[in-house]
Design a protein that fits this description.
The chain is built from 23 helices and 15 strands. It folds into two domains: 277 residues, P-loop containing nucleotide triphosphate hydrolases (Rossmann fold), CATH 3.40.50.300; 243 residues, P-loop containing nucleotide triphosphate hydrolases (Rossmann fold), CATH 3.40.50.300. Helix 15 links the parallel strand 10 and strand 11. It is α/β, with parallel strands linked by helices and 584 residues long. It starts with 9 loop residues before the first strand and ends with a helix. Helix 3 crosses helix 5, helix 5 packs across helix 18 and helix 14 crosses helix 23. Helix content is 47%, strand content 14%. The longest helix is centred in the C-terminal third of the chain and has 22 residues.
């Protein structure tokens, strides 16, 4: 593997959700550790599954991996980090300041902005020379999906610049009170990221045109902030020796080869590795140790060609959704499970039935227009664009709050609005504005990957608490976005997963998180199922056999309503293929 040649101290693995970042990061960590190097594996994904891959609980503290000498791991937990951050700021003033003042500080520190800052604070602490990291030869970062990783890697520069200019006054006063002390740490993080001798970025992709286009954009955006030593890994490629006499395998192989031949120009000159599709689930040390092999040693559980499953289709779920004639449909799940495709298929199916639909996304890396590839009657499409929403929010605050300020006060307000926290507020407001439309039409929302959707829900909960506090004594009726999400008559949450061990565990964890927030998922959608297709290839038959166990687990333990969507020969792009996908 080229990306493993003379590896620097810091290795970042990034890419669209579901491309195999965690598997490759874990396999790399084991490979380096087995050469005698001390390795720390860090997940910056709020929906981390590193612990599940190794079969142990890791969490928000450095934990040795018992079965892998020289290897330790850490999952940066935004919620735990935020609580520790709040405690550091609030505990010293408890019993000194009046309780009302302490409570006010805690409320200032309760939002998504604080959560982001706290997690970011832990992230930068790993990029500097400190007692925390001095014993490790390599620190490997398994990052969140692309859009949020770009933001994470841009933040050291953003916060450093913000602090150097003395910014920060109002909207982020509480969180920023603890940031000023970290000026030196953030500057050191910026230097480490831009140092080619210390940092290498590994862009992980699948052999799909849309994924490769996104990776090309990521490459250019991160090169622009100084991260120039980049490698490309294309994962999960169909081996040519598996396609004989199997139309499904042949179709997959053909479209992957087209994608590889038409790779974006920005990626052509990057050092590149290709990893073949594996027949086994990448869970446990044995699987990870074999990951960089050829992967073709297949022990067939079911040697006969698999017959397609007869499970409920996505169209059958839409039958029940359509009965209400309007409402919010939120499509959630870990990155890479096909949320955008499923959201688009639900929206197209509803629009095809003559119902008005607004299809939108809160995922910075989603490309709904590419999935739809055409316009349709009854269907409008939008995207919550963080940059546009932030600009709109800033202008609104200046036009309202800033209208009565003098020149000095307005200048201070403008400085405050340049805080990176402003984006979190703006995205939440856009989210709230869109879901209000569900009272009159269907709103189908393709959400960001799990961890960041949960952070958005944290902001929604914080807003609900504040409104309830202000309105509670007035006796007036009010409805908050959180109340709408908790009302199963108004909102239907579809959890999308793949029929694989780790995605199913992640989906179950997401369901638990939603239930703790008072949101009951309505149905599960098992996407891209080989078992629901017809396969002859030994590799695909093995994967189909593995899927049957996971589908049974979902049906028996996790949901009373589900649909299975088959893996199609052609990518589901355009209305006709999306309708075909929904029909199963």
């Amino acid at each position: 593997m080229k990306f493993l040649e003379q590896p620097p101290r810091f290795l970042f693995f990034t890419g669209k959700g579901g491309v195999g970042k965690t598997s490759i990061a874990c396999a790399t960590a084991i490979k380096l550790a087995e050469t005698g190097k001390r390795v720390l594996l860090v997940s910056t994904d709020p929906a981390s599954n590193v612990g599940q891959v190794f079969g142990i609980t890791i969490g928000n503290q450095i934990t040795d991996i018992p079965a892998a000498p020289n290897l330790a791991a850490l999952e940066i937990d935004p919620q735990a980090a935020a609580q520790a951050y709040r405690n550091r700021i609030v505990d010293p003033v408890r019993g000194i300041l009046p309780d009302t003042v302490v409570k006010g500080i805690e409320e200032q520190l309760s939002g998504a902005c604080t959560t982001e800052i706290a997690a970011f604070d832990e992230f930068t602490a790993l990029l500097i020379d400190s007692p925390l990291t001095e014993n490790y030869d390599h620190i490997i970062f398994d990052t969140a999906p692309t859009g949020h990783t770009i933001r994470l890697l841009q933040l050291p520069g953003a916060w450093s610049g913000f602090l150097e200019q003395g910014k920060g006054d109002a909207s982020c006063l509480g969180p920023l009170a603890g940031l000023e002390k970290q000026r030196v740490q953030y500057k050191a993080a910026v230097d480490a990221l831009a140092d080619n001798q210390r940092t290498r970025l590994v862009l992980v992709a699948r052999a799909q045109q849309s994924t490769l286009r996104e990776v090309a954009r990521t490459h250019e955006e991160l090169a622009a902030i100084g991260i120039k030593q980049q490698h490309l890994v294309i994962n999960g490629i169909m081996p040519i020796n598996e396609i004989e006499d199997d139309p499904l395998a042949q179709a997959i192989y053909a479209r992957e080869q087209v994608a590889l031949q038409e790779i974006p120009p920005a990626l052509k000159n990057l050092p590149r590795d290709e990893i073949m599709l594996k027949p086994f689930n990448l869970v446990g040390l044995d699987a990870l140790r074999n990951f960089f092999g050829d992967g073709q040693q297949i022990i067939l559980i079911n040697p006969e060609p698999t017959a397609a499953l007869h499970e409920p289709t996505l169209s059958a779920l839409v039958d029940d959704i359509a009965k209400d004639e309007h409402g919010l449909v939120m499509v959630m799940g870990k990155g890479g499970v096909g949320k955008t495709t499923i959201a688009a298929a639900v929206a197209v199916e509803l629009a095809h039935r003559g119902l008005p639909v607004h299809l939108t996304t809160s995922d910075p890396a989603a490309h709904l227009s590419e999935t739809l590839a055409e316009t349709l009657d009854n269907l409008t499409v939008s995207r919550i664009n963080p940059e546009e929403e932030t600009a709109r929010y800033r202008q609104h605050v200046l036009d309202t709050k800033g209208a009565k300020l003098d020149a000095q006060g307005r200048a201070l307000l403008e400085e405050d609005l340049r805080s990176p926290c402003t984006e979190e507020i703006a995205v939440f407001q856009a989210f709230s504005r869109i879901i209000r439309e569900a009272g009159k039409k269907f709103v189908v929302m393709d959400t960001a990957p799990t961890g960041h959707t949960l952070l958005l829900l944290d902001a929604t909960r914080a807003y609900h608490r504040e409104v309830a506090r202000q309105m509670g004594k007035s006796g007036l009726h009010f409805t908050t976005p959180m109340m709408q999400l908790q009302d199963t008559k108004q909102t239907k949450v579809l959890i999308v997963t793949l029929a694989e061990t780790t995605p199913v565990l992640e989906a179950a964890n997401l369901q638990d998180d939603l239930r703790r927030a008072g949101i009951e998922p309505w149905a599960w959608v098992i996407n891209s199922s080989v078992a629901a297709a017809t396969a002859k290839s030994s590799l695909l038959r093995q994967r189909a056999s593995n899927e049957l166990r996971e589908i049974k687990t979902i049906v028996d333990n996790h949901t009373h309503r589900h649909a299975v969507v088959p893996l199609l020969k052609e990518e589901p792009i355009g209305a006709s293929r999306l309708l075909e996908l929904a029909a199963g």
